[in-house]
Automatic annotation (TrEMBL):
Pyridoxal 5'-phosphate binds at residues 74, 177-181, 258. GO terms for molecular function: cysteine synthase activity. It is an enzyme of class 2 (transferase). It holds the Pfam family PALP. This is Cysteine synthase. It comes from the Bacteria. The modification N6-(pyridoxal phosphate)lysine is found at residue 44. The keyword Magnesium does not apply. It comes from Pseudohalioglobus sediminis.
């Protein structure tokens, strides 16, 4: 009898495509990893499945349990999908100013959504999640400190990029939120070739870019190891949004704001280099930002 995949088995193996027009005349190749092609629409599908499946394998959780997570959006949507697949009750805590599409997607998968104020932000959401766990209301997966987050990228995203580039990658660019993507990919890619340069993106002071942060020292993700990042680049909200809109209108690539920032930084890198193969993570799709008006701005 023919074997058909489940939705869980469709996570990963996303396309790696070449930027065509925006890079101009250059000896470099800029490649984009389209993580919006994952079933729940973002790179976070990978760690979401990893955190639940591996905790289940260790006997730490079982179907029917309540899971709790603080999220700015993409991880929450991915965890809501993963919980639905594997039979868990999912409680998600997020700042109230995140887009309506994100909130509705979480609810569609059956998750319970709790909002904190914009002022409380992700720090407040993380504090509330830990308080709920302390009260016995569920288990916090803790994407910020859970080794199963970067493990997902060590075992899938990194190997895919290495294989898809035939081992020719010279620079890897990723926006940094939980930092799971950059940590896992760095560990794998540098394991194959220590000369691969790992470039992380953070918002410049005063910029608000969904999904990425300049973390206060007290809230720096425990999974983050600064030694695995060769260069950290600041990106403005304005440049990220402008590049995001250009990607849609000039390249046909419909993605979110942090992905625009990653491509803007890849273009900036390209201006400094020759004969480089630069891979940037397009972490999600643009449709979950439509209600914010960012695609209507000029």
């Amino acid at each position: 009898m023919r074997e058909y995949p489940t939705i869980e088995q469709c996570v990963g193996n996303t396309p790696l495509i070449r930027l065509q027009r925006m890079q101009g005349q250059t000896s470099n190749t800029i490649l984009l990893k389209l993580e919006g092609n994952n079933p729940a629409g973002s790179v976070k599908d990978r760690p979401a499945m990893s955190m639940i499946a591996r905790a289940e394998e260790r006997g730490e959780i079982k179907p029917g349990d309540t899971l709790i997570e603080a999220t700015s959006g993409n991880t929450g949507i991915a965890l809501a999908m993963a919980a639905a697949i594997r039979g868990y009750r999912m409680v998600l805590i997020m700042p109230s100013h995140m887009s309506d599409e994100r909130k509705q997607a979480m609810s569609a998968y059956g998750a319970v959504l709790i909002e904190v104020s914009q002022e409380e932000g992700m720090e407040g959401a993380r504090d509330l999640a830990m308080a709920m766990q302390a009260r016995g209301e569920g288990r916090v997966l803790d994407q910020f400190g859970n080794a199963d987050n970067p493990h997902a990228h060590l075992t899938s995203t990194g190997p895919e990029i290495w294989s898809q580039t035939g081992g020719t990658i010279t620079h890897f660019v990723s926006s940094m939120g939980t930092t799971g993507t950059i940590m896992g990919c760095s560990a794998y890619l540098k394991g194959q070739n220590p000369d691969v340069q790992i470039v992380g993106l953070q918002p410049e002071d005063g910029s608000s870019i969904p999904g990425i942060r300049r973390w206060p020292q007290a809230y720096l993700p425990a999974i983050y190891n600064a030694a695995r990042v060769d260069r950290v680049m600041d990106i403005s909200q304005r440049e990220s949004e402008q590049t995001m809109r250009r990607l849609a209108s000039e390249e046909g690539i419909f993605c979110g704001v942090s992905s625009g920032g990653a491509v803007a930084s890849a273009l900036r890198l390209s201006a400094e280099l020759e004969n480089a193969v630069i891979v940037a993570i397009i972490c999600d799709r643009g449709d979950r930002y439509l209600s914010t008006g960012v695609f209507a701005a000029h």
